[in-house]
Structure formats: structure tokens, C-alpha cells
Amino acid sequence: EAGVVQSPRYKIIEKKQPVAFWCNPISGHNTLYWYLQNLGQGPELLIRYENEEAVDDSQLPKDRFSAERLKGVDSTLKIQPAELGDSAVYLCASSPAVTVAGELFFGEGSRLTVL
Amino acid sequence: GNSVTQMEGPVTLSEEAFLTINCTYTATGYPSLFWYVQYPGEGLQLLLKATKADDKGSNKGFEATYRKETTSFHLEKGSVQVSDSAVYFCALYSGGSNYKLTFGKGTLLTVNP
């Protein structure tokens, strides 16, 4: 079974430029998460989707961050414009509809460096 | 709010040494507790879990017991291997409408041959 796939793995951009990250969850997983992981910190939830609906986006900085999950499968996280402080790893995770709450399957992450 | 506190790393051990990584938590209600592991170059993966007090989670020789009286979920392994070198994250889920997994900061473990 294929795992959660994220791309790109690494991205280096100048500040004020836009950037987008893509995530393909495990087939059949209805719930999709985007997490932010700063250096030396644990992951923090940005947004959670149930199918195509964003059910928790309270931690997403909506002035510059946006996300979508069209058709309830793949998802894209966008930052526009990027700031120096956005340098971090962006993690995507998924879980099936029926699972032990808290059991998530993570991708390898997208490491963003903003210069 | 919910929070998880892990012992700060890095932790460096010799192969076959005993490992303990401390984890304590603050949460309302009765959370489920988890240890996730991140091997170099890989994504986080679930190592073990416990969903109620006094439960013991175990996997790959690692164990952790859910202690409600001390609000702890310490990770232990009797004999570590070089392949256990990774970052370990303690996490909790407290349920309800706030469906969110709260992570500790992570502890880097390096095991030397």
C-alpha cells in the first residue's frame, strides 16, 4: 500500500515569492491534515479536512496561507507571499474515517527555506 | 489547553543500553497517548499507543505505560540498537470537537555501536 506522498521534498525561495505544496493521502483515507514543524519543535496542526470540507482551520494564518482539497482526495497548501519565518517543514498526514483517534499516517514532509 | 512535555535531548547511548524518554502531559478529560518516531529521512510513524489509564503500549521492543496518577507516558526499551536512532515524539489526543493531536517537542536519540 502506498503511503502519503508529498511534493516537493525541498523548496528554496526568496521572500515574498509564492510556494505551493501538494499531498496525496493514502487511498480511502477521508481525513487529511496539514501540520507545520519548526526546527526543534513538534508538529502543529494547520488545517484538517474531512473529505473536501475544512473542519478545523483555526490555526491556519489566513492572510497568507490557503489550502484546498478538491474532490476530497489530493490537497494543496499555498503560501503567498512567503516570509522568512515560514521556513519550516510542512507535513501532510491522513487517517481513515474509522480509526483510533490520534493514529495518523504522515508523509515525508516538504522542507521550505525562505531566503 | 492540552500540552505535552518531553525530556530534552539529545540523548546519546551505546548499543544495548537501557533507554528512558520521559513524557508528561496536561489535558482535560481522558486523553489517548501516543509515541511517534521519525527515522532519518522518513516521515513520522506511530510507534505505540495507549487509550486508557494503566494501558501499556508496546512495539519493536519499546514500551510505555499510561499513568494517570502521574500524568506520564514514559518510553522505555531494555536494549537499544543503532537502528533505533531517531527523533521520538510524545503526543496526546483528548477527543471531542477539538480533534487535534498535540505533540511534544521531540527527543533526538543517537545510539552508537
Topology:
The complex is a heterodimer of chains A (115) and B (113).
Chain A: E1 5-7, E2 10-13, E3 19-24, E4 31-37, E5 44-50, E6 53-56, E7 65-68, E8 75-79, E9 88-95, E10 105-106, E11 110-114
Parallel strand pairs in A: 2-11
Antiparallel strand pairs in A: 1-3, 3-8, 4-5, 4-9, 5-6, 7-8, 9-10, 9-11
Chain B: E1 3-6, E2 11-14, E3 19-21, E4 23-26, E5 32-38, E6 45-50, E7 56-59, E8 62-65, E9 75-77, E10 86-93, E11 101-103, E12 107-112
Parallel strand pairs in B: 2-12
Antiparallel strand pairs in B: 1-4, 3-9, 5-6, 5-10, 7-8, 8-9, 10-11, 10-12
The value of Rg of chain B in angstroms is: 14 Å
Query: What portion of residues of chain B is helical?
Result: under 10%
- Rg calculated over all Cα atoms of chain A: 13 Å
The helix content of chain A is: under 10%
Secondary-structure element string of chain A: EEEEEEEEEEE
Largest sheet of chain B: 6 strands, mixed
**Number of distinct beta strands of chain A:** 11
- What oligomerization state is this entry in? heterodimer
Which structural category do the helix and sheet elements of chain A fall into? mainly beta
Shape of chain B: globular
SSE order of chain B in H/E notation? EEEEEEEEEEEE
Spatial separation of the terminal alpha carbons of chain B: 41 Å
Per DSSP, what share of the residues of chain B sits in E-state strands of 2 or more residues?
over 45%
Low-confidence stretches of chain A: none
Count the DSSP helices of chain B: 0
Unreliable stretches of chain B: none
